[in-house]
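Aim 2 progress update. The chain analyzed this quarter is reproduced below.
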Amino acid sequence: DTGLRAILMDLTESAAASRPLFDGEPHKGIMDVLAGNATLSQVVRTDRYSDLAVIPFGLTDPESAIAHIDQLPGILDALEDVFDVLLIETGPSDAEGLKKLDSDEAEIVVSLIEAETDLVRSGVRDLHDAGFRNFTVATCAEITQDTQAREEAVA
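Predicted structure tokens:
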């Protein structure tokens, strides 16, 4: 939507979500904030290609930062006060890991590159069993089917 302020937080250890936005250059990020090596205002950056605000993964070793993961809900609350949309890329995760990110307004999108039906069902069941009700599962198969359907409708 036009006018919405959005921020992307990269929790992928490979910095897969943020590194391309900075042409591969590493920057301080959320791991540095959790470890006490930076403040939130020091790590929020704008990517080089849009107005998207980004919090990179960071430079601090994740093992030392994860010891302070209990700070994450407060950080998310602070970001929700400033931004209209908060996108969090976690990389591979499970329902227990996602619990740390849950809020009343959270919408979880689980994206799967190679989606086997049994794996998707198992993951959906795990999320449901953990109390998640507001989530979407997106797979390449769905994307491919949607693209093919649009192409057939145009033809």
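Confidence is low (pLDDT under 50) at residues 142-148. The helical segments are 30-34, 40-43, 62-66, 72-82, 95-99, 117-129, 140-154. These observations will guide the mutagenesis experiments scheduled for the next reporting period.
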